[in-house]
Amino acid sequence: MNSLTLRQQEILGFIRVFARDQGYWPSIREIQKHFGFKSTNAVAGHLLALERKGALARVPGQARAYRITGDTAENGGKTFADEIDVVEIPVYGNIAAGFPEGVESGNAIARLQIDVETAGIARGGKSFALRVRGESMIDAGIFDGDTVILEVRSPRNGDIVAALIDGETTLKRYLQPRGQPPYLKAENRTFPSIYPVNELLVQGVATSVVRRL
């Protein structure tokens, strides 16, 4: 790897520490704010330079997604190396963790970069994120304001899912008793279970939760 400038080393270090502590990469604006850059273009320029020098590598098939390469750095005679396999996931808006609400817009409102291990998703699978609104899943550790990562696949009994039920969306636990139709169960005793009248369509299975402290 070509030698890095002091600023490039600082940015790479910030990304590594942020990703370890938070489980996902800082956004360009978070890097901009941390270093006091006047524009996001300055951040993009540094990321491009880090890529050219081999400190970052683009993740194939993921726009604007990188991983930190496995080059080693010396620290008191010890070496350490990390590769953070990062994917970029679209955030499609809010989902009710309460009573079902109208369907959000189908367009992504943001992008989230998160490492594959933290997200709990399969490399190459189709995933997306939704911001939680409501308190019906608090006993499962999902709170108002969290961001939930979901994978597009068929649900298993007991999975937490984003579901379209009779034309409205909600985040609940998917249950299907033997020989009976599936229904959605809240993880908060003050909320009732929900049984579909006509339609229950699972849009994604929750794999992990991102929370900002």
Report on the structure:
The chain is an alpha+beta fold. The chain folds into two domains: 6-84, Arc Repressor Mutant, subunit A, CATH 1.10.10; 87-210, Umud Fragment, subunit A (Ribbon), CATH 2.10.109. It contains four helices and twelve strands, in the order H-H-H-E-E-E-E-E-E-H-E-E-E-E-E-E. The chain has helices spanning 6-22, 28-35, 40-52, 116-119, and strands at 56-58, 66-68, 73-75, 78-80, 86-96, 110-115, 127-133, 147-151, 160-165, 168-175, 183-185, 200-210. Helix 2 packs across helix 3 (40-52). The longest helix has 17 residues, at 6-22. The two termini are 35 Å apart.
Radius of gyration over all CA atoms, rounded: 20 Å
The share of residues in extended strands comes to 25-35%
Record field, number of beta strands: 12
How far apart the termini lie comes to 35 Å
Tell me the CATH superfamily of the largest domain: Umud Fragment, subunit A
Low-confidence stretches: 71-83
Mean pLDDT: 80
Number of domains: 2
Question: What's the CATH class of the largest domain, please?
Answer: Mainly Beta
Q: Rough shape?
A: elongated
